[in-house]
Amino acid sequence: MATQRKSVKKETAKHNGSEIQPAKGKLGIMIPGMGAVATTFVAGVEAVRKGLAKPIGSVTQMGTIRLGKRTDARSPKVKEFVPLATLNDLVFTGWDIFEDDMHAAATKAGVLDREMLDEIKPFLSSIKPQKAVFDRNYVKKIDGPNVKKGKTKMDLAEQVRDDIRNFGKTSGASRLVTIWCGSTETFIQPSAAHQSLKAFEKALRENDENIAPSMIYAYASLMEGVPFANGAPNLTVDLPVMQELSRKNEAPICGKDFKTGQTLMKTILAPGFKARLLGLNGWFSTNILGNRDGEVLDDPGSFKTKEESKLSVLEHILQPDLYPDLYGKFYHKVRINYYPPRGDNKEGWDNIDIFGWLGYPMQIKVDFLCRDSILAAPIVLDLVLFLDLAKRSSELRGKGIQEWLSFFFKSPMTAPGLYPEHDLFIQSMKLKNTLRHLKGEEMITHLGLEYYD
Ligand SMILES: NC(=O)c1ccc[n+]([C@@H]2O[C@H](COP(=O)([O-])OP(=O)(O)OC[C@H]3O[C@@H](n4cnc5c(N)ncnc54)[C@H](O)[C@@H]3O)[C@@H](O)[C@H]2O)c1
């Protein structure tokens, strides 16, 4: 052990007083919710490992980062610039209320072609769901048999902690990360039970209804010092207790709600309108989708959770307080319609009523025939790799919320009192500048006057 510690110390990169430990050994990915997104992610990682496809859409795998001046011609790949786990280092487990292994679940989700899934069948079939912490009061539209039993929510949390420790041992992983890819839970507001670790643990023992299953996974992970990302719009880690636990146990957290589909489009288009000072009268968004996520969102409670997450985006990007003439009165509506024939291949329409010079109106129509899980899978990959990086960084691991990962979320978590940054381009710059900072490289300001001296 002593020699191991010594060698780690020697290899640890030190910049600006901050250190990043190397990504040695396997990284265990633990996923509550083995549905469309989770299976598309895991199958995709294996397909890329086998050379069957490319990791399109992944910042860590395909992205580059410019360093220094434009004339320096230094633009390494992100994965070569910061020490990340490689795809070959990843091992997986998950929990679900259904007993299907990952091959069966991926086949049912119907996102990836049969032929591709069959080429990686032995690998996918080997990943079987552990029994879930589940309660229909929080997700009304589904029910399944693969569920843990326990007298109190604390008992259930202990069982998840056991699962985590067992996976750590049996997988041989040296580090772990949890990412919630489970269904969207019903709308819950923060309450007294969520304000401190003491209150939360008391509430766990008393089966308080304010504690949803996703919070139990989050608590268990953070108690084990394991970073946690939240891919759904549920509160989950967006609570004082989780922030306290995250900082205390140096287990970074981030969330919430993967930024895909229509909201991705919104955060690409709206910053453009604002940059050009074009006004907005209204933005009507509607979707049809027919996967299980769509079915869950057909329940008003789950939809409300999603709606809150989707609606906040424009307000924050357009800043009506600063631009009352342009954005003081816009009408924003978001609908999601469950329509089974489409499966995972969602269609999202946007009607955008903008106005220009002297108030003259114009319209923009967007019809995005997207594939939800195809857009979400690379986000899952990037998040687990970056959260693991954060855990190995002396500067980031104790900070709790990793706001630099806002890029990947519809409702980015921030420190209390800070408004979230929704503009995709600001988020991208924030992410890359954080990586530059961690490695002691200059921030890029795009000033560029020196080229004309
Ligand atoms: N696909 C996207 O683009 C996208 C974007 C943003 C957010 N999300 C969110 O990601 C989540 C997953 O999406 P999906 O399309 O894979 O949905 P899905 O319905 O295919 O998969 C969710 C899985 O979670 C399981 N589950 C539910 N509660 C659970 C619990 N308590 N413990 C363990 N498993 C549980 C369900 O049985 C199901 O298999 C949803 O909350 C969705 O809203 C998806």
Percentage of residues in strands:
15-25%
Main CATH class of the largest domain: Alpha Beta
Bound molecules: nicotinamide-adenine-dinucleotide
Per CATH, which architecture of the largest domain? 3-Layer(aba) Sandwich
Distance between the termini: 55 Å
**Total discrete domains:** 2
Task: Classify the secondary structure makeup into a structural class.
Answer: alpha/beta
State the shape.
Answer: globular
CATH topology of the largest domain, which one? Rossmann fold
Instruction: Tally the helices.
Output: 17
CATH superfamily of the largest domain: NAD(P)-binding Rossmann-like Domain
Task: Please summarize the sheet with the most strands.
Answer: 6 strands, parallel
Helices and strands, in order, run as HEEEHHHEHHHEHEHHEHEHEHHHEEEHH
Low-pLDDT segments, ≥5 res: 1-10
Q: Which sequence of strands runs across the widest sheet?
A: 5-4-3-6-7-8
Q: What does the radius of gyration come to? A: 22 Å
Helix content: 25-40%
Q: Which whole number gives the mean pLDDT?
A: 94
**How many runs of DSSP E, i.e. beta strands?**
12
Main attributes of the structure:
alpha/beta, Rossmann fold, Dihydrodipicolinate Reductase, domain 2, six-stranded parallel beta sheet, four-stranded mixed beta sheet, 17 helices, binds nicotinamide-adenine-dinucleotide
